[in-house]
Amino acid sequence: MKKQIPLTILIAVIMLTALTSFASNNNKNMDYTPIQFSVWPGVKNWPGAKNVGGVKFGVPWAYTIDDIDKYKVNGVEFAIISQTKAINGLQAAMVTFNTKKVDGVQLAFANMLGSSINALQIACCNYNENNFSGVQLAVGNINSKNSSGAQLGLLNYQGKNSSGLQLGLANNSKDFSGSQIGLLNLNYNKNSLAFQFGLINYMENGFLPIFPFFNFSIRVIPEYK
After folding, report:
1. Apex CA 143: angle with CA 103 and CA 109, to 5°?
2. For the segment 40-83, what is each residue's pLDDT rounded down to a tens digit?
3. Which one, of 64, 100, 112, 72, lies nearest residue 88 by Cα?
């Protein structure tokens, strides 16, 4: 009897999420379904509604086309592989990739090639191409550009136009302003406003380029005519 209680609670939560999201989003101008099954790219989802206001299952592959304004999931998605472009809620899969807009939580073995992600990402590897904000928890976290938030992992990389916190064994950044805490911290931004705390710290505009235990940037003051 006790073993059935967690399953009953999970089913109730999923049903409540589906009904609540469906009730709040369903109207004459939108094409919604409270539950949907997806099989493979190119195979029509069932039911064939454009939007899911509840729960979507990828068995094994969850898929939608690129039009994120018309095709999205509001609620929860479970899949082996997910290529659903737009999620508002929880996306749980072995692998997510090529997501275009996520607001919520991504839980996976690997989150790959995301863009316009505003979420908590939990995985072994997180890799976003553009426009990430939130928190990443993984063995390896990579953001190519335009990111803000926290990276918590063994290996962290922030690319162009990024800011926030890096906490890990090794932190590497190309254009980063914020704090780096780890054994090895690298910051290749000549105009950064950053602080480093670790065994080895390299910063192009630090008070010294390389310094043990800590380093901080020297603010660049522009010349005024």
Report:
1. 65
2. 888 888 988 889 999 999 999 998 877 777 788 999 999 999 99
3. 72
Count of beta carbons in the 10 Å neighbourhood of residue 201: 27
What span, in angstroms and rounded, lies between the C-alpha atoms of 158 and 178? 11
Domain range summary for the chain, segments of one domain joined by +: 1-95, 124-225
CB 190 within 8 A of CB 205: yes
**C-alpha span between 69 and 12 (Å, rounded):** 29
- Token pair, residue 41, equals 């790219």
CA–CA distance, 108 with 115 (Å, rounded to integer): 16
Residue (of 83, 89, 26, 31) closest to 55 by Cα position: 89
State both tokens at 221.
């003051």
Q: How many residues does the chain have?
A: 225
E strand spans, 66-218: 73-83, 86-97, 101-122, 125-167, 170-173, 176-187, 194-203, 210-216
Helix (H, G, I), strand (E, B) or coil at 118: strand
Question: Each residue of 116-175: pLDDT tens digit?
Answer: 999 999 999 999 999 999 999 999 999 999 999 999 999 999 999 999 999 999 999 998
Which residue in this structure is represented by tokens 């020297």?
Answer: 218
Structure tokens at 89: 């809620």
